[in-house]
């Protein structure tokens, strides 16, 4: 029996999974975390809304882990609906532009809703 599959279609908004790892967080002092890093992170995440990104959900693996992410490469993921590819690029670049990439690693995975679960 042969099943015919068509190429997936890109749908908008884009479904984007951001893998988030705290690679430099552990070397920062408590004062640096509270006074510099967390305020900058909150500002960047708030600015994503201005780009039209909508948070769908998050998952933090810290319930059964401590320390660095290890071989998974991330300790938290954030799922967003994003209006276009340029917005994804801008969101990622904001980590570089603010220096947050010194403390965190961010990687975007672009896909679409899973057709059997979301229509």
Short descriptors:
4 strands; four-stranded antiparallel beta sheet; alpha+beta; globular; 119 residues
Summarize the SSE layout with pairings.
Blueprint: E1 14-21, H1 30-50, E2 54-60, E3 76-82, H2 85-97, E4 105-111
Antiparallel strand pairs: 1-3, 1-4, 2-3
Question: What would you say this structure looks like, in words?
Answer:
By secondary structure, the protein is of the alpha+beta class. It has a single domain (14-111), classed as Alpha-Beta Plaits (2-Layer Sandwich). The chain contains two helices and four strands; from the N terminus they run βαββαβ. It has helices at residues 30-50, 85-97; strands at 14-21, 54-60, 76-82, 105-111. Strands 2-3-1-4 form a four-stranded antiparallel β-sheet, with helices on one face. The model has no long low-confidence stretch (mean pLDDT 91).
């Amino acid at each position: 029996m042969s099943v015919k599959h068509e190429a997936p279609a890109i749908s908008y908004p884009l479904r984007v999974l951001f893998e988030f790892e705290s690679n430099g967080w552990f070397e920062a002092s408590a004062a640096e975390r509270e006074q510099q890093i967390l305020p900058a992170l909150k500002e960047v995440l708030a600015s994503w809304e201005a780009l039209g990104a909508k948070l769908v959900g998050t998952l933090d693996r810290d319930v059964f882990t401590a320390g660095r992410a290890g071989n998974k490469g991330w300790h938290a993921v954030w799922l967003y609906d994003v209006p276009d590819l340029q917005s994804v690029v801008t969101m990622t670049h904001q980590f570089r532009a603010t220096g947050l990439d010194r403390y965190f690693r961010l990687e975007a995975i672009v896909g679409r809703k899973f057709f059997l679960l979301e229509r």
